[in-house]
Amino acid sequence: MSALDDLFAQGRRPFILAPMAGFTNSVCRKIFREYGADAAVSEFVYSRAVLSGSGRVLEKLRLDASERPAGVQLFGSDPSEMADAALKVVEEIKAFGGEAMSNGGNVADFDQMVEMVAKAKEAWGGVFLTAKKKCGL
Asked: Whole-prediction pTM value?
């Protein structure tokens, strides 16, 4: 059970800093945690970039102890690619002592998102998982 699971099990509604591109870097996450956020989530990390091993992207996966519990916002549109990238992200986070994961599948098809989340959950095991769907009008 992760630290976030513990918060929900206690009946709390945790305050989690949402990911914002170009804003929720390590310094931002530390400030929000210092001022009461229960957890924070990184900027978006593209699944294909994770699989390519890009140093800049992998740096976003480094979560300092003062940021935890924290997660990484992984995005993409291919369910298998997302699952593979998710597994790599989980390995990287665990290497740094992290324990949370946020998955944002930015896809138009709800059924595809469900498949993506199912594959990610299967690959990740007991890692905390969230998903979001953007709807355009």
From this structure: 0.70
